[in-house]
Amino acid sequence: MIDLKKSEVWFVTGSQSLYGEDTLRQVAAHSQTIVQGLSASAHIPVSIVYKPVVTSSDAIYALCLEANSSASCVGLITWMHTFSPAKMWIAGLNVLKKPFMHLHTQYNREIPWGEIDMDFMNLNQSAHGDREFGFIGSRMRLERKVVVGYWQDPEVQEEIGVWARAACAWHDAQGARVARFGDNMREVAVTEGDKVEAQIRLGYSVGGYGIGDLVDAVSQITDSEIDRLVSVYDDTYRVAEPLRKGGSQRGALREAARIEVGMRAFLEAGRFKAFTTSFEDLHGMEQLPGIAVQRLMADGYGFGAEGDWKTAALVRAMKVMGAGLDGGTSFMEDYTYHFAGAQSRVLGAHMLEVCTSIAGEKPALEMHPLSIGGKKDPARLVFTARPGPAINATLLDMGNRFRMVVSEVDVVSPDAPLPKLPVARAMWVPRPNLKVAAGAWILAGGAHHTSYSQAVTASHLQDFAEIAGLEFLCIDANTTIANFKKELRWNESYYLLAKGL
Ligand code: MN
Fold first, then answer.
1. 152: closest CA among 110, 111, 124?
2. Ligand 1 centroid vs 103 CA: distance in angstroms?
3. What is the pTM of this model?
C-alpha cells in the first residue's frame, strides 16, 4: 500500500551565468554524480531526481511552480556548488509549496593540496555559496532542514533519508481522507479538535459516516469472501481451539471476517488512508471491530479508537515515514503501570486495536468478552511487542496551534507471562524514567492515545513537525522537569508572537 520509491525528491543546484559554459557543464556533471550517489544509498528510500542547474530568477521560479504541481515530487534538495546570488531565489521560494532541504556539502571531500588553484577554488565554493543561500532562507523565515557534511558519508545520507521520509508523510497527508465511523467518545476532551484547522495546517480532511453506512458495506459481503479470509486467518495465526473449523466460536469468527472484508471495501471505495471507530456507536454491528482494525493497520491504514482522528492521521503518517524500515507502527494507549523504582514500566495496550506489525511473535487469534460496549465477544489478535527502542507520539489541539509530543522509550519483555490478559500489549521503560517522562507528558497535555513505533524515530517526527509547522516537544534521556517546564512557557510566548511574524 505504501511505496516510497515512487516518490521523488528533486535535486536542484544553484549557480549563475558569470562563470561561463565550461564551468556550468562541470557543475552539472558534479551534481549528476552526487544524485547517482544519493540514489544508490540504502539510507534514502525515495528517487532522487536530477534537475538542470538553475542560473536565473526565472528558471528558479519556473522550477518551483513545476515542483508545486508535480504529483510525485515530495520536496527539493538545494545545493550551491558555486555562488548563486540569493535574490534570484526570492521569487521561487515565495511560491514554493513543497518542503525543501538545504544540503550543505561539497563535491570533493578533501583539498587537493598540491593541485589547488583559483579555478578549483571558483568551482568548489559551497562553503560560502551555501551561506548566501542560507541567508535568504532565514531572511524569508522559511522552515527548512539543513544537513551539513560530505555527501558520501552514511551519516549525511541517513539525515537526508530521515527528512525524505518526513516529506513523504507530509505529501501523503495532502488531500488525504480520514473516515470517522460514529463520533467522539462522549465527554472525552483530548480526542476532539478543530478539523477545519487540521485540514488547513496538515492537509487531510476528516469525514463522518453513520455506522449504518459501514453496516451496509459489511452486509453485502458474500460467504465465499468470508471463506477466503477465514482461511487466511487459519494459515497466519495461532488460532484458539474454539475458533477453529467446527469449534463453538467459528461462527463468530466468520462474523469478524465479514466485518474486515466490509470495512476494507468501504475504505478502498472511498480512497481513505485512515479511520476511527467508536464503541459507543455500533448499531447493527455484532462486534466491535478488533482483528479487522489490527489487520487494516498492518496494511498501512492509520487508526484511532473512540473517534480519535488526530491519532488516526498520525498513525498513517508514521506508517508512511517507517515504510520499509525494520519494526512496526501501531495505535497505542498507556494502560497500566508497574512501579519499580528506576525500572518502572508502562504496560501499553488497547481494548483490541493494536497493529500486528509490532508483534514479537506469531499472534494468537482469540475471542473474549469486552467489558464495555454491550456487543458480542470480538475476535482479536493477541501478542507481545518485540523489545527494543521505540517512541510514542501524540498530536494535540492546544486551541491556537497543534502540538506534537514524542516520548522515547525502551521496550522490554514482561517479567512473566500474562496468560489472562486477552489483548496485544507492549511494555516499555520511558526515558529518562517513568517519573520524569510521565510528568513531562502530563504537563504537555499529551494524550492517553499515541502512535507507537519501533521504525520511526524522534528525528523523523521532528522533521515532519518542522515541515508541518507544528510545535514539537521531545521527552528523552536528557529531559528534566525544570527545563521542560521552561520550554513549555517559552513556547507559549513564541507561538503567540510567531503569528505576527
Ligand atoms: Mn482508548
1. 110
2. 41
3. 0.97
